[in-house]
Amino acid sequence: MRIKMIYLVNIGHSLESIMKKSPDGFSNSRRALIRNGFTTAVVGAAAATGLLKTGLVRAQAAKASKATMMYQATPHGKDQCDNCVHFIPGKTPTDDGTCTVVEGSIAPGAWCVAYAPKG
Question: pTM to 2 decimals?
Answer without folding.
Answer: 0.50
